[in-house]
Amino acid sequence: MAGFFLSLNAALMWGMLPVAIKELLAGMDATTIVWYRFLVAGIVLGLWLLATRNLPHITGTSIRLHKLMLIAALALSCNYFLFSYSLNFVNAETSEAVIQLTTLFLILGGVIIYKESFVAVQKIGTLLIVLGLALFFHDRIRELSSLANRETIGVIIVVFAAITWVIYALLQKQLLRDFSSVQILFFIYMFAIVLLLPFIRPASLLQLSPFHAWLLVFCCVNTLVAYGSFAEALNCWEASKVSAILALAPLFTIGTLKLIVWINPDYAFSDHLSLLSILGALLLVFGSVMTALVPMIYQRRLDRLAKGIT
């Protein structure tokens, strides 16, 4: 039960995050937002690892491991930036829907790199993801066919954000043999803080309105709470079940914006989705849940067959 609620909390946090970032971009650029998120998360994780005497020791590891860690750090840094930057062009519902392509890309990456199985139910889930995206954009497909359209640019940026996250996730699978997930994140945050330093405008913090300042605080806390809940959920629940719950994030995004629009009908940063687009989002989520749960079910079936249980 704890795994379920921790996963649900992570999904809620990640679902609300693009809504907050979209508003915050009015007062701070995407690079600086990401840098402050990394800074706060890095300090807190560093203090935690120091207190538990669990700081990662990179120097004593192989050159290959150094390269994998650097690529993973670069990939996740790009993911954070690209996802935040895309919100200059698209609204939160669109960004959260398109980022669900991580599920599809992760499956394909697992099949190609780790030679994982790709069973029939996963193929159906993949089809539902593609169909869900088509329905989600059904009334905007013509506009998205033009590179001159701002939304098209935003969608392309989110696709690249999904690809960079999958690169990080696939590399993390190997890094977890030598480091804990918290140690990996700490190194990545430290790397990103240095990497982004030449491109930020830290003084913009002093120019934020109280509302935007609280949004920045929320984004920083969100990074810690979401990844903390995610990591802890993996400790007490199957990874496939955690992934299935995390796939609900787009519904939390849509729900949050529906609530905002209900309170303020003139709210500008919402796509005001039609019923068909919402149906597309539901299919997208259902397809993601299917593809996440199938590996667990498939493995259990193999285990039962190995034990001679039918």
How many structurally independent domains? 1
Tally of extended strands?
A: 0
End-to-end distance: 28 Å
Structural class: mainly alpha
Largest sheet descriptor: none
**What's the overall geometry?**
globular
**Average predicted local confidence, pLDDT:** 85
> Helix and strand succession?
HHHHHHHHHHHHH
Unreliable runs = none
| Approximate helicity band | over 70%
* Cα-based radius of gyration, to the nearest Å: 20 Å
Strand content: under 5%
Total of DSSP H or I helical runs spanning 4+ residues: 13
Chain-wise SSE layout:
Blueprint: H1 2-24, H2 30-51, H3 63-86, H4 92-98, H5 101-113, H6 120-136, H7 141-144, H8 150-175, H9 181-196, H10 210-236, H11 239-246, H12 249-263, H13 275-306
Helix pairs in contact: 1-4, 1-10, 1-11, 1-12, 2-3, 2-9, 2-10, 3-8, 3-9, 4-12, 5-8, 6-13, 11-13, 12-13
Q: What can you tell me about this protein's structure?
A:
- It contains 13 helices and no strands.
- It is globular and about 55 Å long.
- It has one domain.
- The longest helix is centred in the last third of the chain and has 32 residues.
- By secondary structure, the chain is mainly α.
Please outline what is shown here:
With 310 residues, this protein is mostly helical. It has helices at 2-24, 30-51, 63-86, 92-98, 101-113, 120-136, 141-144, 150-175, 181-196, 210-236, 239-246, 249-263, 275-306. The mean pLDDT is 85.
Write out key terms for the chains shown.
single chain; mainly alpha; globular; 310 residues
